[in-house]
Prior knowledge:
By secondary structure, this protein is α/β, with parallel strands linked by helices. The chain is 36% helix and 18% strand. It has helices at 18-27, 50-56, 77-83, 98-107, 153-164, 179-188, 197-200, 205-224, and strands at 5-8, 33-38, 64-69, 87-91, 111-116, 134-138, 170-174, 192-195. Strands 1-8-7-6-5-4-3-2 form an eight-stranded parallel sheet. α2 (50-56) runs parallel beside α3 (77-83) and α6 (179-188) packs parallel to α8 (205-224). The protein is globular and about 45 Å long. The two termini are 15 Å apart. 43% of the residues are buried. Residues 9, 11-12, 34, 36, 67, 140, 142-143, 145-147, 174-177, 194-198 line the site of D-xylitol-5-phosphate.
Amino acid sequence: MTGPIIAPSILSADLARLGEEVRAVDHQGADWIHIDVMDGHFVPNLTWGPPVVAAIRPLTRKPFDVHLMIAPADPYLEAFAKAGADHITVHVEAGPHLDRSLQAIRSMGKKAGVALNPATHENSIAHVLDRVDLILVMTVNPGFGGQAFIPQALAKLARIRQMIGARPILVEVDGGITTITAASAVKAGADVLVAGSAIFKGSKPEAYGENIRALKQAAVPAIVA
Ligand code: DX5
Ligand code: ZN
């Protein structure tokens, strides 16, 4: 079955059993592992840093998609690269030197991503399109799992898809992704679906597998249409 890339967000995992949870979503069909880093400053919540990324790195070969919700991000890029991140995404709102951050990420041999909050205009990334491998469109305000999808982000996603043209850039959506919202996100042009609560609900590996398949399946009509 073809379908979008599915990136479970471990923010919604059972954190007391984080390693087992990473292995479980890997075995149940996750394409990437999405790791949300929060600093209690750029967003009103705290999670983890490079040591946790390094600790779970040996447990899976799937790409680590590290979403940095931190400001400043630049002082920490190298530590996340060394910890085993494959993709490092910084927020356009996190600092004045986005171009420098993206160059730094690529210079470490990692895929460079840029994320936009719901209120941020797509023009903010118009001049860095040749420096990014991934664009993350936030479909909730970042900071927490389990929030409601913001549908206004879809028009922006579609415009970003047009701006990209033929460049080899993947577009990712993050926040409030369910089997219902997944279909509209893919229809608007998303290649990658990040999902936390929709994947980790059920709290056991078989449920994660069903949830991942349900998301892929929900998006298929949008791809065919
Ligand atoms: C929110 C994070 C998301 C979050 C998504 O700030 O960036 O990755 O885990 O969680 P759900 O899928 O539950 O909205
Ligand atoms: Zn995220």
